[in-house]
Amino acid sequence: MFEKYYSDRIKKTPSSFIREILKVIQDPKIISFAGGLPNPISFPKDELKKSMDNITRDFGDKIYQYSTTLGLDSLRSQIAQRYKKIWNMDIGIDNIIITTGSQQALDLIGKAFINKDDVVMVEKPSYLGLLQAFCVYEAKFVQVKLNDDGLDIDELKRVLKNDKPKLSYLIPNFQNPTGLTYTLENRKKIFNETKNQDMLLIQDDPYGELRFENKPRIPYIGLNETDKNIYLGSFSKIVTPGMRLGYAIAHPNIIKMLETAKQASDLHSNIFSQYLISDYLKNNDLDLHIEKIKNLYKSQAYCMLDSMEKYFPKDVKFTHPEGGMFIWVTLPEGQSSLELFNKAIAKNVAFVPGDPFYVEERNVNTFRLNYTNADNENIIEGIKRLSEAMKEK
Amino acid sequence: MFEKYYSDRIKKTPSSFIREILKVIQDPKIISFAGGLPNPISFPKDELKKSMDNITRDFGDKIYQYSTTLGLDSLRSQIAQRYKKIWNMDIGIDNIIITTGSQQALDLIGKAFINKDDVVMVEKPSYLGLLQAFCVYEAKFVQVKLNDDGLDIDELKRVLKNDKPKLSYLIPNFQNPTGLTYTLENRKKIFNETKNQDMLLIQDDPYGELRFENKPRIPYIGLNETDKNIYLGSFSKIVTPGMRLGYAIAHPNIIKMLETAKQASDLHSNIFSQYLISDYLKNNDLDLHIEKIKNLYKSQAYCMLDSMEKYFPKDVKFTHPEGGMFIWVTLPEGQSSLELFNKAIAKNVAFVPGDPFYVEERNVNTFRLNYTNADNENIIEGIKRLSEAMKEK
Predict the structure, then answer these.
(1) Do B229 and B205 contact (CB within 8 A), yes or no?
(2) Contact between chains at B4 and A198 (C-beta distance less than 8 A)
(3) For labelling, which of A319, B43, B61, B362 has a CA lying 20 to 30 Å from the CA of B165?
(4) Contact between chains at B65 and A48 (C-beta distance less than 8 A)
């Protein structure tokens, strides 16, 4: 009875498949590899409580009052310092806007930069939250195949030439959903192909800090070489997602447009949590905390990979992430991961079928596994059950 | 250099005039009646700190983890209970979505229900944050004059017939910017005129609890008589705005579309603050707290009104609010409140000129005063300065 009121954009926007799955699998009997949740034992609860005591004592009313749209200066300054230190980026607080989780950064970019039918280049497969966010602004997506070393350069060239994307969205580190990381060489090639293109390049990096293989960080595409990059980051995977704090780093003119978009969207992000995270960063060694998370996730990733080697049919392929939260599985040609999903649920184990990560393909033979939110015992048991589901006729 | 990337919608969206003004008047010498800030002495700081201690002790990881898009069940249930008690509304948690401040509810409604050039009926003058939020979705606004008793019914009839609005946005209690309240009779007339219209009616009510004149609450337009109403509420003016928690109440089918829009926008609102406010409501008497705020604002409102009676030129008119946060001033015909603004700033007193509250009119002779965020001494001094500015040639 309300259909006549719905906007065209919302009719086209898929409800998040993952969030629907998460509702289905509330049953505690189910071992879930479906979500993208950090392991709760990684939350620095005592330190955050200490920071609450600090800021309620030190900042009076400011932690409860309305605040500025761009975000708390001290937090923006801490972010700038971190990116200067790690990446030698020449940035200040004018390059940074705090967002309500990095999902909001995607919404704001959509608001500020996408007209109906504007072409947006994304990976194939891509983050479904991005597909959802930009679908709202009626973007036209083109997908470029992701290989083990990063974007497929031939496809990239073809898309740049034929489709002339206005925006591009990439997750170069421990990609969601595949867990793949672009090599340095691949990144250089991408920069060479894109640098003269009239295109803004978004690099979303929620997992970049979670490199558990002991190899050096790989610089962003076009780092310190272009003004057309938008870098997204988040405290969700390294401190706490519940506080909904992410950020975008870009040229001040881009930040200004995101600010206007944010005024209209939620005025500003929760200021209490901005003071909280700022105090946490001031009084704790974030790198030391990240080190603990990495050790935890490394053990969980290896446990899952080892179990997959041991139990999965040999014609099932999967990625070997060097960090982050996900493994991407490819079933033999012609098999459907949606069908496998139903069999798996019957055996009380869940994952995310590949379909929602693609713009067009359906009934694909790929799916996503998350290893960060289950203990090793459950990982082994879950993979066993999944293997049995695979072997069922 | 980035103009070519901007979306059409963001080019049309005005940056919030108020937020720009707030930047200008950081100077502590300036007495500001410009913002819409609650008085910080009204924040229940000790009680909120107590609730922090409670929830960090009782809820473990849940206050830091990802959560559901619709919001915390216990908080939604508390909201439902309150509306049942006050308004005898037959609602449950399926009728409620928690939003990142009630500004986000406006953004979500725009996302879910507005196509380019859809007609939206608003008051004249209207809340500028709404104009900004819906401008993003390229709504076509029609304004209906606001009289002392509410909407002008003749204009309303004409607009309903000629423009056939799909949505309507009203603030029936202590309206922003005018401070006016629709009478019961006016509300009944509006319901009679609109009930057979294919139109969703949004009633935004951030100030309704702040009725400091001792008269009974006036029911919403069409309360308990239609499924086409969307009610918006907020904890910003009665507990704390910094936590960014508002909500929408509507038919479950409407809530479902807002949920899809919210998934794409920020996944979910800060879950820590949802637990916090829920605990605060459980362990404190909100009505008792609101009583204190009302007494405070009553004294401030009367102080400002008395000063205005005493010092303003007699040909300057103004509203007499029975609650809320604002007084609306009308200068003699032909005078410009923008010009007065510049003179006032020179005398270190600030307000919001009327222009941004109108869709088309510019250089209007009206402006908004806020009395909640200054003490009585400053109110008297500020009104004196403003009167002097008015008398300047």
Answers:
(1) no
(2) yes
(3) B362
(4) no
Query: Which one of A240, A261, A283 terminates a domain?
Result: A283
The interface predicted TM-score of the complex, written ipTM, equals 0.96
Is residue A53 a part of any domain in this protein?
no
Q: Which of B8, B37, B254 sits opposite A2 (nearest CB)?
A: B254
Query: Using an 8 Å Cβ cutoff, are A370 and A301 in contact?
Result: no
Whole-number Å distance between alpha carbons of A268 and A97: 10
pLDDT tens track, chain B, 393 positions: 899 999 999 988 877 677 677 777 778 899 999 989 999 999 999 999 999 999 999 999 999 999 999 999 999 999 999 999 999 999 999 999 999 999 999 999 999 999 999 999 999 999 999 999 999 999 999 999 999 999 999 999 999 999 999 999 999 999 999 999 999 999 999 999 999 999 999 999 999 999 999 999 999 999 999 999 999 999 999 999 999 999 999 999 999 999 999 999 999 999 999 999 999 999 999 999 999 999 999 999 999 999 999 999 999 999 999 999 999 999 999 999 999 999 999 999 999 999 999 999 999 999 999 999 999 999 999 999 999 999 987
Cα–Cα distance for residue pair B137/B135, rounded to 1 Å: 5
8 Å CB contact of B267 and A103: yes
With CB atoms and an 8 Å threshold, state whether B40 touches A64.
yes
- The number of distinct structural domains making up chain A is 2
Q: Give the one of A10, A37, A251 whose C-beta lies nearest to B66's C-beta.
A: A37
Give pTM, 2 decimals: 0.97
> Could you list the residue range(s) of the whole structural domain that residue A92 is in?
65-283
Asked if residues A52 and A59 have their Cβ atoms less than 8 Å apart, the reply is: no
List of chain A residues whose C-beta atoms are within 8 Å of the C-beta of residue B135:
264
Determine the Cα–Cα distance for residues B393 and B382; give it in Å rounded to an integer. Answer: 19
